[in-house]
């Protein structure tokens, strides 16, 4: 089920599709996620999408809108809302902080 999520996170994914990938019922899918990961399949999917968005924001120069669509998070307004809930800052602030950290590392490496 996790492999299915990781391979399809940018698409519209349903619990039925996740459970079908493992040849189990939706109810069993919910039970397994709750028992093993202490979350629901859709919460896991959302968190995985947000982790991928964080990675894209730190490693690339795509627009915020492009990142939100590439991660399956839809509109930039929805993306901003869930991203702030996940990280405590906006996608733009997150990117800026990581760019600042990268600059500091480069400066510190040049003095070494």
Q: What is the C-alpha radius of gyration, as a whole number of Å?
A: 17 Å
Structural class: mainly alpha
The percentage helix is over 70%
Number of helices: 7
- Terminal CA distance reads 46 Å
**How many DSSP-defined strands?**
0
Sheet-strand content, in percent, reads: under 5%
Description:
The protein is an all-alpha fold and 112 residues long. The protein contains seven helices and no strands. α2 crosses α3. The longest helix is centred in the last third of the chain and has 21 residues, at 91-111.
In a few lines, what is going on in this structure?
The chain is mainly α and about 110 residues long.
Question: Which key phrases capture this entry?
Answer:
mainly alpha, 112 residues, single chain, elongated
SSE blueprint:
Elements: H1 2-8, H2 15-21, H3 26-37, H4 41-59, H5 64-70, H6 76-87, H7 91-111
Helix pairs in contact: 2-3
